[in-house]
């Protein structure tokens, strides 16, 4: 607890990938400059705070994960406050401000924060500061930075009002002979003057953050006239401006080298609260032709010796390493090439000023340096401004130092967005661009986030293929750009493609006695069940599937499962099934020509396909995209959704497909119901609420 209860506020964060925690820590660091103390905790640490008795203001920073869910760390908290037996004044004493993080590319934007905000309101809590909703699609800092700037005055006013309330209560008890209006009038005047002082204090605090720089230094790094700005170059007025840069984050990790002897931990120890399975890859098929724009692979895993269970529509996660060449390059730049196989001990630095500092859970206490860089840290992560600020202190060249200061400053916000965030520049790219930057190993562990397992949709049915799990993915390609001169593949998809190359291109060494290719390669996976993206419980209910490209993947599992059910239960009634599939070229990337088999055996009732890049000699050009094809079957789609109470599933790219499909469905509902667009949008919202319009999308 903070020692000065009159200047204290409670700061809670709920994070999935570290964003909310990093922002909460920034608030905690800035609090001291404003004469406040933040009592900071992860929202899951419910033994360390108690909202039922909390009297000081509460600040909550919360992200959103999955399809609008609160992060895993907030599950218990959300479950607790959603208890329906709680009275409507349960949190009537509570003052709070909430900052939600989300991505408008996804349907339920900031739903984690909105869920908590809405429930606190229902239980009587009062906002002392407007709720902020930050959008990672355009840049969290566009909302986060001004929200934090305004937080301090709001916090101080909330604390003063609290003090005012306590003082009023004391005055009522102590002063019985004074006329009733007088204390209130005096207090109002005092409050007004104190608030005015707070405004002056805040202006002073802001001005103290300005980085003073000598004119000589500015002239030294000023670019030549007409120079275009880039990752490493700036132009006036930024190159000649005084800068507001973040406070230097306190270091809190200590790394000790211990020699080459020992044993690395098992990968399963890196995954908290999940059961991991190491399973062999038994089959790999390239689904696209060599001249296709994207390369799609299907992998089959053998799960027969495990208790791994899934339903069609579920997802699972693959634990993947960083690219081995990038790890070696990073070791070289850090001057640690000879120490990659040495064991290191990671501990909290004694005397650190970071409150509640602890070794990150995903960092083993003892392992080799190469193990940490390969399996634990996301070296491809886009560096946050706090990391850039720390890197300033590790940079010797004056021009490079200044540019890093600009990129982490408030004045350089647009340059940060354009040259780092939007260009997907990672830590290794920065070290290449700023060669005099030589960070210590502890900074990497402090600032690089956890290497996340990658999630994939299941493309099979355990009923159809017992003991097998299949999934489909495109090999992700990041072309070179001015801010990043080297092209690269996705962390996981690039690794998987390399891993299964012997299965895709068998040699004499990878053939068994029957002449079949085989593999001894194994990957570690863990389940990520989907609570809603499943087949209808009633098989007689019709459903529509929309899955262009690799978005068709989960629907292969749907159809396999449905085929097996039809074989096993010939007396059951089965509803109609529709599949809308699209790709660029019929002869290059029509991923599953076996869809015709489902059509022929009656599992699939209607198959509608389109090819966006194929030329046509027809008088009327065929539709290019799935949303165009859907419009051609407006009456049938409306009948399934409105009359037959059917389901509608979408899987694939959100921005360029799912939104277009939603627009098409709204138009269909409007036309078939003879209603205006707003009414049709309400119907679609109702379908979503009833879990009959379901999406599994990505950006």
From TrEMBL:
EC number: 1.16.1.8
Subcellular location: Cytoplasm
GO biological process: cobalamin metabolic process; folic acid metabolic process; homocysteine metabolic process; methionine biosynthetic process
Catalytic activity reported: 2 cob(II)alamin + A + 2 H2O + 2 H(+) = 2 aquacob(III)alamin + AH2
Annotated Flavodoxin-like domain residues: 9-152
Keywords (A to Z) from UniProt: Amino-acid biosynthesis, Cytoplasm, FAD, Flavoprotein, FMN, Methionine biosynthesis, NADP, Oxidoreductase, Phosphoprotein, S-adenosyl-L-methionine
Pfam families referenced in this protein's UniProt entry, alphabetically: FAD_binding_1 (PF00667), Flavodoxin_1 (PF00258), NAD_binding_1 (PF00175)
CDD domains the UniProt entry points to: methionine_synthase_red (cd06203)
Gene Ontology cellular component list: cytosol
Domain FAD-binding FR-type: 274-536
Coiled-coil spans in chain: none
InterPro entries recorded: CysJ-like_FAD-binding, FAD-bd_FR_type, Flavdoxin-like, Flavodoxin/NO_synth, Flavoprot_Pyr_Nucl_cyt_Rdtase, Flavoprotein-like_sf, FNR_nucleotide-bd, NADPH_Cyt_P450_Rdtase_alpha
Cofactor(s) this protein requires: FAD; FMN
Molecular-function GO term, any one: flavin adenine dinucleotide binding
UniProt subunit comment: Forms a multiprotein complex with MMACHC, MMADHC and MTR.
Identification of the protein by name: Methionine synthase reductase
Source organism per UniProt: Oxyruncus cristatus
């Amino acid at each position: 607890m903070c020692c000065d209860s009159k200047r204290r506020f409670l700061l809670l964060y709920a994070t999935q990938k570290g964003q909310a925690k990093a922002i909460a820590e920034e608030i905690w660091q800035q609090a001291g400059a404003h004469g406040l103390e933040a009592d900071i905790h992860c929202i899951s640490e419910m033994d360390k705070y108690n909202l039922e008795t909390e009297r000081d203001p509460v600040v909550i920073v919360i992200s959103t994960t999955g399809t609008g869910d609160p992060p895993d760390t907030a599950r218990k908290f959300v479950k607790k406050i959603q208890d329906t037996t709680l009275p409507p004044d349960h949190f009537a004493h509570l003052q709070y401000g909430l900052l939600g993080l989300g991505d408008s590319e996804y349907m339920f934007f900031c739903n984690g924060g909105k869920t908590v905000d809405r429930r606190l309101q229902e239980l009587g809590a009062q906002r002392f500061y407007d709720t902020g909703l930050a959008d990672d699609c355009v840049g969290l800092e566009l909302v986060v930075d001004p929200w934090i700037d305004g937080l301090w005055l709001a916090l101080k006013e909330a604390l003063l009002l609290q003090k005012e309330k306590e003082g009023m209560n004391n005055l009522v008890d102590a002063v019985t002979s004074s006329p009733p209006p007088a204390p209130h009038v005096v207090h109002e005047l005092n409050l007004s003057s104190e608030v005015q002082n707070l405004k002056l204090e805040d202006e002073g605090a802001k001005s103290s953050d300005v980085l003073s720089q000598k004119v000589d230094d500015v002239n030294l790094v000023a670019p030549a006239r007409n120079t275009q700005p880039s990752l490493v170059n700036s132009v006036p007025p930024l190159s000649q401006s005084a800068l507001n840069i973040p406070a230097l984050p306190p270091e809190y990790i200590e790394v000790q080298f211990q020699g080459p002897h020992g044993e690395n931990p098992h990968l399963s120890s890196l995954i908290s609260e999940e059961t991991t399975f190491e399973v062999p890859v038994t089959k790999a098929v390239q689904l696209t032709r060599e001249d296709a724009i994207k390369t799609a692979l299907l992998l089959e895993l053998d799960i027969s010796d495990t208790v791994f269970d899934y339903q069609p529509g579920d997802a699972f996660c693959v634990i993947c390493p960083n690219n081995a060449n990038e790890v070696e390059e990073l070791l070289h730049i850090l001057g640690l090439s000879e120490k990659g196989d040495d064991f290191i001990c990671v501990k909290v630095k004694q005397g650190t000023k970071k409150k509640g500092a602890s070794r990150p859970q995903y960092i083993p206490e003892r392992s080799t340096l190469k193990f940490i860089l390969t399996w634990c840290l996301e070296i491809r992560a886009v560096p946050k401004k706090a990391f850039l600020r720390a890197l300033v202190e590790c940079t010797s060249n004056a021009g490079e130092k200044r540019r890093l200061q600009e990129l982490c400053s408030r004045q350089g916000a647009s340059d940060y967005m354009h040259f780092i965030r939007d260009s997907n520049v990672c830590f290794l790219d920065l070290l290449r661009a700023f060669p005099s930057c030589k960070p210590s190993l502890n900074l990497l562990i402090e600032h690089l986030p956890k290497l996340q397992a990658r999630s994939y949709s299941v493309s099979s049915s355990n009923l159809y293929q017992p003991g097998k799990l299949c999934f489909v993915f495109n090999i992700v390609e990041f072309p070179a750009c001015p801010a990043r001169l080297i092209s690269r593949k996705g962390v996981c998809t690039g690794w998987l493609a390399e891993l299964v190359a012997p299965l895709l291109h068998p040699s004499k060494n990878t053939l068994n006695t029957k002449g079949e290719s085989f593999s001894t390669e194994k990957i570690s996976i863990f389940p990520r069940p989907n609570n809603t993206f499943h087949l209808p419980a009633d098989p007689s209910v019709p459903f529509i599937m929309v899955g262009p490209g690799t978005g068709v993947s989960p629907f292969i599992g749907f159809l396999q499962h449905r085929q097996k059910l039809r074989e096993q239960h010939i007396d059951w009634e089965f509803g109609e099934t529709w599949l809308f599939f699209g790709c660029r070229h019929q002869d290059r990337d029509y991923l599953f020509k076996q869809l015709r088999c489902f059509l022929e055996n009656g599992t699939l009732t209607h198959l509608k396909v389109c090819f966006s890049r194929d030329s046509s000699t027809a008088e009327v050009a065929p539709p290019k995209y799935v949303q165009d094809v859907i419009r051609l079957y407006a009456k049938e789609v409306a009948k399934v959704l409105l009359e037959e109470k059917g389901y509608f599933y979408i899987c694939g790219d959100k921005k360029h497909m799912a939104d277009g499909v939603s627009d098409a469905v709204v138009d269909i509902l409007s036309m078939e119901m003879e209603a205006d667009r707003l009414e049709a949008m309400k119907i679609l919202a109702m379908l979503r609420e009833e879990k009959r319009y379901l999406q599994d999308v990505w950006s």
